[in-house]
């Protein structure tokens, strides 16, 4: 593996192994719970972590290791760990940093599942998550950091309205305060955004989305950037510096810059057990091999869809980070030089309008999921944000007529045609408005 290889080469080759027994070129599915010890002493060595050889697939499986290394490589990190879902990745990533009584700062624009975890399981476990406006300035962020703060948490592109976090600014706050920046890079993927280059310490993914890409896998990944100085922050993270059983060196001593990933694998995943199925890792690897190709098409299609929807009279507002009138345009250009992703959310004014629109779609599937090769749409107010009351939804920008569209890689014209025929039921277009809809680019 050469560090000089480009992204397209590394997405195919990084971390790959050639199976020793059969010489298989494709990473095999090692569907095995455990690994035979050579003898009694070997078993003891593996359990004590003194041997590099694995013991049990709950936290260490060869197929999973290849996929985790590949994601870590694409992100530019030093180590990666796969877990059972994106939700599990968030829980494990924060669980490896914080304990009861600790505090985590987040942007106020996050996937609702993460917010639900914050006010549910994490609060019950004694963690306090505090939201800071995504466009707050550096001093406001730094002022919100207290002695108990263990992480600054952001989504590079927020789900569902596409607000883009200024990771450079958050990276500077992380450096000033000694608190690691954790970035959920699910919607951007490492092809569009590289959080470690902006000061992140940890990147997490729902690998269920664009990384797998085909709607067939639930999974999550956590990548350690090797960028954070755990020694300088020893007071906040004593568990990484504590002596281990039988006089073994602490995680910080033994693993240095990769101490966080080692702790995550050897303690958090081992103890909680959110294991990733190796069959899913096999599918994930196949998805990653075409990530850049799919992302280019996703991005191009989303731009065409956003432009077409902007011109339709039934659409009150388009939420798309590539819009010319996006107040954070400069941040978007700095964070996402290769494109702004493929989530386009539209406000149709009322819940009834959203209802009529969604039930009229033919090509586009009405379901909860994003990052699929297929175009998907959902009324988030009655589903993902359904547990909130109206005022809470509005405070998050979830208006009654909001529909999130995850734009797939089908022919752009076919996606646009399906969306427009459903919108025409709400507000038929004039001939001039029909003509104004751009013809999609030919790929
Ligand atoms: C940004 C983001 N992070 C995390 C998750 C959770 O991922 P999963 O569904 O794999 O648990 C999602 C799911 O939609 C998401 O959109």
From TrEMBL:
Keywords: Lyase, Pyridoxal phosphate, Transferase. One of its GO terms (molecular function) is methionine gamma-lyase activity. The modification N6-(pyridoxal phosphate)lysine is found at residue 209. It is an enzyme of class 4 (lyase). Its cofactor is pyridoxal 5'-phosphate. It comes from the Bacteria. It catalyses: L-methionine + H2O = methanethiol + 2-oxobutanoate + NH4(+); L-homocysteine + H2O = 2-oxobutanoate + hydrogen sulfide + NH4(+) + H(+). Pfam families: Cys_Met_Meta_PP (PF01053). Transmembrane segments: none annotated. Its EC number is 4.4.1.2. One of its GO terms (cellular component) is cytoplasm. GO terms for biological process: cysteine biosynthetic process from serine; L-homocysteine biosynthetic process; transsulfuration. SUPFAM superfamilies: PLP-dependent transferases. Belongs to the trans-sulfuration enzymes family. This is homocysteine desulfhydrase.
């Amino acid at each position: 593996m050469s560090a000089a290889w480009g992204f397209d080469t590394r997405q195919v080759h990084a971390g790959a192994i050639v199976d020793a027994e059969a010489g298989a070129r494709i990473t095999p599915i090692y569907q095995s719970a455990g690994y035979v010890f050579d003898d009694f002493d070997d078993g003891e060595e593996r359990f004590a972590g003194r041997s590099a050889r694995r013991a049990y697939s709950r936290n260490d499986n060869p197929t999973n290791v290849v996929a985790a290394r590949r994601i870590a490589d694409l992100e530019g990190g030093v180590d990666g760990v796969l877990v059972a879902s994106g939700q599990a990745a968030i829980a494990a990533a924060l669980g490896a940093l914080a304990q009861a009584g600790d505090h985590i700062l987040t942007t106020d624009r996050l996937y609702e599942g993460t917010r639900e975890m914050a006010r549910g399981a994490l609060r019950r476990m004694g963690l306090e998550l505090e939201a800071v406006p995504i466009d707050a300035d550096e001093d406001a962020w730094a002022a919100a950091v207290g002695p108990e703060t263990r992480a600054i948490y952001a989504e590079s592109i927020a789900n569902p309205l596409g607000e883009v976090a200024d990771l450079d600014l958050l990276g500077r706050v992380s450096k000033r305060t000694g608190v690691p920046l954790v970035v959920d890079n699910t919607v951007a993927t490492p092809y569009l955004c590289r959080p470690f280059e902006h000061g992140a310490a940890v990147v997490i993914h729902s690998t269920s989305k664009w990384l797998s890409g085909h709607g067939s896998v639930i999974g999550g990944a956590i990548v350690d950037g090797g960028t954070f100085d755990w020694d300088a922050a020893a007071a906040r993270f004593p568990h990484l510096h504590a002596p281990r059983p039988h006089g073994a060196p602490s995680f910080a001593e033994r693993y240095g810059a990769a101490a966080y990933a080692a702790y995550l694998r050897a303690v958090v995943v081992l103890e909680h057990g959110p294991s990733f199925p190796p069959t899913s890792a096999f599918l994930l690897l196949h998805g990653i091999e075409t990530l850049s190709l799919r992302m280019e098409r996703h991005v191009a299609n989303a731009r065409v869809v956003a432009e077409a929807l902007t011109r339709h009279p039934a659409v009150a507002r388009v939420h798309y980070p590539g819009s010319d009138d996006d107040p954070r345009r400069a941040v978007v250009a700095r964070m996402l030089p290769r494109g702004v992703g493929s989530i386009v959310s539209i406000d149709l004014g009322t819940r009834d309008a959203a209802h009529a629109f969604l039930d009229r779609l033919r090509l586009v599937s009405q379901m909860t999921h994003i990052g699929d090769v297929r175009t998907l749409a959902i009324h988030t107010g009655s589903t993902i944000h359904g547990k909130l009351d109206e005022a809470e939804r509005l405070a998050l920008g979830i208006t009654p007529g909001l529909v999130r569209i995850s734009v797939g890689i089908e022919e752009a014209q076919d996606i646009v045609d399906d969306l427009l025929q459903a919108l025409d039921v709400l507000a038929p277009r004039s001939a001039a408005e029909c003509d104004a809809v751009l013809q999609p680019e030919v790929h």
